[in-house]
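Q: Got a minute? One more chain.
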Amino acid sequence: MQTTELPGGIDLVDEDGGPVLRLRGEVDSLVVAAYDAASSPGRRPAVAVDLSAATFLDGPGLRLLVRATEATRRSGRVPELRRPSHTVQRMVEIAGVQRLFAAVL
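A: Always. Here it is, folded:
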């Protein structure tokens, strides 16, 4: 049986301020689908997204940023986008979702 290695990955890790979504590599529809399939339905909402190791986000990857932090916004907090590369920052801007996040460079 041959396994296909995904081009990126997603982890939800607990930090002092709350859960942080960490993205690495190319976060595309396959990576998002694998993350969703492996995640429990009652996972806590992310208070931040660490993009320091992400190199690419497609539409599903960008939707994941918004979806994973929606409950944080509803609670009155502004989730953080942490250390995006110039390329990823530009993708976020083009998609028009940068206004939903506080940028942490």
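A: The CA atoms of residues 49 and 70 lie 12 Å apart.
Q: Perfect, thanks.
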